[in-house]
C-alpha cells in the first residue's frame, strides 16, 4: 500500500524499439527523484499501439534499465488495462466531454487548409457538436466509424512546473484532441491520464516537448475527478549536431553503447547530467547522483551530448575502478591478477581493452626491433639480471646498460620498450618487468 504522502513517479516508454540516450534521460531523472525522496518508481509500458509495440522491445527496455542501474518498483502494461480506459470513456461521454466526430482525414485536411488560407489557426471547428441524431445515423449507415474528441474548456491552464517554473497553456488555441480512434483504439493521452490517476502518480517528469500536452491533460484529470500531479519538464538531450535523438532516425541505442563496452554509469552520467550545472565527472553510483542533483540545476537551455566527453569520462571511470569491482569481469575474460589490473587500467579507454593490454604480461607479443638496435638489445639480454625481481630490477638493468653503452633517455628506454611490449606506449616498465618475468623477457629480446 502506497502512503498518500509518498512520491510516486513513472517512466512510460513505448516499446517500439530499443531506448536511446534521449529516452534514458527522463528514465534516469525520474529514478533520481524517486530515490532522493524515498518514493516509488513505476515503469509503464505504453503499448496500446498494437501495430508497432512488441514484447521483444518491452523486454529489451527492462534489460537496458537494469544495465543502467534502475530497478522499477512496479511494472504495468497499458495493453492489460483497457477496462480502465473503457470506463473512463463512459464517464467522459456521460459528462458531455467526449463527443463523436465523423470527418475523414481528407476532410480534416481540407478544413485545415482553408483555415490557413484565411490566416486562421488550423484548429478543429467542433462541427461534430452540431450534428443531429439523423446526421450521425446517416454517417454510420455510410460505414463511417466515429473518432472521439475531448471537449476542451478553452481557457488558460496554469501549473507550477517543478523544473521550468510557472507555466500557462491556453487550450483555447488548441484543437479538441482525439482520444479514441475510429477503430476503437486509444491514443496516448487518455490512457496516460487514467493510469496516472489509478497508480496515484504524484510527479510527472518528462521532456519539455510535452509542455503543451500538459494543459490538455490537466483538463482531463479534472474531468475524471482525479488529483492533478505535479509536472516537471526538462530540457531535451540532443546529439553533437544539435539534433534530437530519435528511434525513427536510428539514433544510437543504449544497448549499442553497452555492446561497444561503455560503463553503464558513464552512459547514465552523460544522459542525465548533460545540460545541468552539475559537472560531468565520475560518480560511483546512481544514488550518489540522486543525492546531489536538484532539479533547480537543470538548465533551461540545450543539453548537447558530446561523444568525446563520454569517451574521456568512460576512461576516467575505468582508470579508478578498484580490483574488487573488476575481478568478476576479468574472470569472464579469462584474466586474473590484482597487480596486472592496477598496472594496466590507466591505459584503458574501455574495460575490454584489457584483453589486448594483458598480452604485454601473458603474451604473445610481437617485438618491434630496429636493425640499428640489435647489438644494443643483444647486450641488454646478456645483462638481464637474475631473479628474484622487484621494482628495483628495472633501474639496476638500465643503469648497467647506460654504463656499458653510454645510451640514455629515449635512446636507452625506447628500444627496450618496443622489444618487450611491441608498443611505443604503455605502463611503467619497472612494474611491468616484474609481471612479465625473466623467461618471457629473454624470449622477447633478440
UniProtKB/TrEMBL annotation:
Biological classification of the source: Bacteria, Pseudomonadati, Pseudomonadota, Alphaproteobacteria, Hyphomicrobiales
UniProt protein name: Glutamate--tRNA ligase
UniProt keyword annotations, A-Z: Aminoacyl-tRNA synthetase, ATP-binding, Cytoplasm, Ligase, Nucleotide-binding, Protein biosynthesis
Role this protein plays: Catalyzes the attachment of glutamate to tRNA(Glu) in a two-step reaction: glutamate is first activated by ATP to form Glu-AMP and then transferred to the acceptor end of tRNA(Glu).
Transmembrane segments: none
Keyword presence, Nuclease: no
SUPFAM superfamilies: An anticodon-binding domain of class I aminoacyl-tRNA synthetases, Nucleotidylyl transferase
Reaction equations catalysed: tRNA(Glu) + L-glutamate + ATP = L-glutamyl-tRNA(Glu) + AMP + diphosphate
Principal subcellular localisation of the protein: cytoplasm
Subunit structure: Monomer.
EC number: 6.1.1.17
GO molecular function annotation: ATP binding; glutamate-tRNA ligase activity; tRNA binding
Amino acid at each position: 500500500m502506497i502512503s498518500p504522502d509518498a512520491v510516486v513517479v513513472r517512466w512510460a516508454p513505448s516499446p517500439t524499439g530499443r531506448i536511446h540516450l534521449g529516452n534514458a534521460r527522463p528514465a534516469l531523472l525520474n529514478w533520481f527523484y524517486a530515490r532522493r525522496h524515498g518514493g516509488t518508481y513505476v515503469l509503464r509500458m505504453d503499448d496500446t499501439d498494437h501495430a508497432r509495440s512488441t514484447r521483444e522491445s518491452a523486454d529489451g527496455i527492462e534489460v537496458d534499465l537494469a544495465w543502467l542501474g534502475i530497478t522499477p518498483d512496479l511494472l504495468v502494461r497499458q495493453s492489460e488495462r483497457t477496462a480502465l480506459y473503457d470506463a473512463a470513456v463512459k464517464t467522459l461521454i456521460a459528462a458531455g466531454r467526449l463527443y463523436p466526430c465523423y470527418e475523414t482525414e481528407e476532410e480534416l485536411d481540407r478544413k485545415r487548409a482553408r483555415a490557413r488560407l484565411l490566416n486562421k489557426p488550423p484548429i478543429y471547428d467542433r462541427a461534430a457538436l452540431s450534428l443531429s441524431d439523423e446526421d450521425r445515423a446517416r454517417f454510420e449507415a455510410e460505414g463511417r466509424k466515429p473518432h472521439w474528441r475531448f471537449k476542451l474548456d478553452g481557457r488558460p491552464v496554469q501549473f507550477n512546473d517543478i523544473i521550468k517554473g510557472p507555466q500557462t497553456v491556453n487550450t483555447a488555441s488548441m484543437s479538441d484532441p482525439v482520444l479514441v480512434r475510429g477503430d476503437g483504439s486509444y491514443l496516448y493521452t487518455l490512457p496516460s491520464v487514467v493510469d496516472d490517476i489509478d497508480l496515484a502518480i504524484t510527479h510527472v517528469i518528462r521532456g519539455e516537448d510535452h509542455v503543451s500536452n500538459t494543459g490538455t491533460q490537466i483538463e482531463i484529470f479534472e474531468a475524471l475527478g482525479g488529483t492533478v500531479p505535479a509536472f516537471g519538464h526538462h530540457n531535451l538531450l540532443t546529439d553533437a549536431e544539435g539534433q534530437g535523438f530519435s528511434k525513427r532516425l536510428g539514433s544510437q541505442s543504449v544497448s549499442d553503447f553497452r555492446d561497444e563496452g561503455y560503463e553503464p554509469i558513464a552512459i547514465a552520467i552523460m544522459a542525465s547530467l548533460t545540460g545541468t550545472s552539475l559537472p560531468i565527472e565520475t560518480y560511483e553510483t546512481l544514488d550518489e547522483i540522486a543525492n546531489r542533483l536538484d532539479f533547480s540545476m537543470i538548465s533551461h537551455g540545450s543539453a548537447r551530448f558530446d561523444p568525446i566527453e563520454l569517451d574521456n569520462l568512460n576512461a576516467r571511470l575505468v582508470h579508478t575502478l578498484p580490483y574488487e569491482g573488476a575481478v568478476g569481469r576479468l574472470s569472464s575474460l579469462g584474466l586474473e591478477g590484482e597487480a596486472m589490473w592496477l598496472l594496466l587500467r590507466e591505459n584503458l579507454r574501455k574495460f575490454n581493452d584489457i584483453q589486448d593490454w594483458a598480452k604485454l604480461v601473458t603474451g604473445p607479443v610481437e617485438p618491434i626491433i630496429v636493425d640499428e638496435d640489435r647489438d644494443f638489445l643483444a647486450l641488454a639480454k646478456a645483462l638481464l639480471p637474475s631473479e628474484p625481481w622487484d621494482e628495483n630490477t628495472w633501474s639496476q638493468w638500465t643503469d648497467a646498460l647506460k654504463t656499458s653503452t653510454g645510451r640514455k633517455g629515449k635512446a636507452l628506454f625506447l628500444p627496450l620498450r618496443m622489444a618487450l611490449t611491441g608498443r611505443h606506449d604503455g605502463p611503467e616498465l619497472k612494474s611491468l618487468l616484474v609481471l612479465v618475468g625473466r623467461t618471457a623477457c629473454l624470449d622477447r629480446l633478440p
